[in-house]
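Loading example: each entry is read as two labelled lines plus one structure line.
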Amino acid sequence: MPAYNQSMYLELDKVIETNKGQKGAVMMTLQSAQDIFGHVPKDVQIRIAEGLGVPLSEVYGVATFYSQFALDPRGQYIIGVCLGTACYVKGSKDVLDKVVETLATPVGKTSPDGLFTIKDTRCLGACGLAPVMMINDDVYGRLVPADIPGILNKYRA
Amino acid sequence: MNMITLTIDGVEVTVPAGSTVLEAARAAGIRIPTLCYMKDINEIGACRLCVVDTGARAWQAACVAPAAEGMKVKTNTPALRAARKTNLELLLSNHDKKCLSCVRSTNCELQKLCREYGVDDENRYAGATTSHPEDFGSAAIVRDNSKCVLCRRCVAVCSKIQNVGVIGAINRGFNTSIASPWNMSLGETACINCGQCIAVCPTGALTERDDTAKVFEAIADPTKHVVVQPAPAVRAALGEEFGLPMGTSVTGKMAAALRRLGFDKVFDTDFAADLTIMEEGYELIGRIKNGGTLPMITSCSPGWIKFCEHNYPEFLDNLSSCKSPHEMMGAIVKSYYAEKAGIDPKDIFVVSVMPCTAKKFERMRPEMNNEVDVVITTRELARMIKNSGIDFTELPDEDFDEMLGDSTGAGVIFGATGGVMEAALRTAYEVVTGKTLEKVEFEAVRGLEGIKEATIDLEGTPISVAVAHSTGAASKLLDMVKAGEKNYTFIEVMGCPGGCVNGGGQPIVSPEERVKKDPKVLRAKALYSEDEAKTIRKSHENPSIQKLYAEFLGEPNSHKAHELLHTHYTARPKY
């Protein structure tokens, strides 16, 4: 778990103060909160609800409506396995399954060591390399499931 | 006022500028079907059943489309009817369609619309469906999202009217559902169990927790002495479940029905309302005389109490320590009545029939010592009567049983907003001044204004009072008190808009019907008429109450009364 410190909460309070009463305040505040904390955990959402004077159910509704918001801490490395048409027919589902199996972590979640978050993505625009996976900014192409453990190990060093 | 004229289905209508097409159509006497729409609080154009042809490129949702000068609107063309039918079939594609076993069958807006628009294949768009476990975690409210049409009426009433806001739309697209944050059960949230969400649900997605089986079981158990008590507001609404016009008082038939269901004693919560006035009235006088915490706030409404515990814990000392009337009755039945009747209290089973879902939670509070064994709502009682083959409308009028069945006009009006205040004032006036109150009606505290205020002169001691109904209105009132803007001696709060007559356990009236006849008004009228017809209209003049004090309790607020009839409150977290 990443460490939160008091200054993060003070920064959030300032954002809440600025946005309070504005149109779209919940959305704007959640975006800033995600920048500050890396994700929007429960206590942060409660602070936003209290601060803006809106129901927590509304804050949570917005946070779960937009895929940009992460409710759980995200890993140091974001793994995106492409499930676009070209990658899919080239077997990217098997690649994704291998990632899930190797990390023992479901899609959308973060591995227990906090290192990796697994995501399935739309087309990454590298169909010639299908099936494609990205880890942060690194691109891996023409994958077979057997490649996965070795690639992941490089990030564990 | 700026007026505009438009034509709807060939009918010319003039309406204030700013009206929607739907409002204009209603003014012209043309019915456009609605499902998600609730005037002022849920105008979101989501369900698309009110689509109309305004001549614009695309059809508009009449509930949100502004009416314009010279506009020509068509609401009833073959294409529009077909579109509405398709919309309904699409709603059904993710609906469980178990109408035969649904408690809302025959009273379901979705079902009714499907019949009206000639849906002839409920599986036309069969495909993937979302799956949601039913939420059974609340003592009062059951949510079954497989019947939810995502109209968001429950969300609107919870946050905008009640200021509770524990439900919302979560996730997105196909995965959208109405739930509490982090999919918490309602029972884990600051839900106050008021049941207003049930009252506005068009389908069976939100229902009360059905406790009728426990009541039938107790009645069938020969070792149990089963006592029943209906709340004041029940008699003003129960008839609606049997086709009687809204506002029909069915007190006598209700007593007869309860007897035929097999209850051993049919007592009346109205009696306990009179008892509440004695305890609460004397508590108020005591607080005024002895410098106790003021304003004192009424404590009859368990939805309001839980709301206060979660959201305004700083006001807990202001709450009257009186239990709510049906809990007082439970305590008296298992002590005084048990003693008089020579029955072991542990063999007595007390059933409360309430207009209220929050009473189901209240009953389970440890402070209440299981004095009431089961709470059922008005709707559940109707279900039991139907289930037992009792022809309700043909029943004769009968009386309640003696000892704990007599009540005054003051007890009856407890079911309407302002009623507890009025009943308390009738008694407080006479106790404080020692004079007879000639005019018993306190008109200033009656009616449907959000917050009502009055100053009552108790012969030299003016006391200022306020009445709020709905927890949303109560929040506004308490915020003003907190800010020092207002100063009162006595405040009545009822958790539901209009008070108990419009409680979350009452027969369901759709928003469309509510536009034509307001149950808050008509049911309250039934109670005030009963009050007027009573010879005794002040709680302290109830002979059975006087006897109860003389034989058993001693004085109001005596040690024994405190033990049996008073309680305390617990601050609860908001999240």
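The radius of gyration of chain B is 25 Å.
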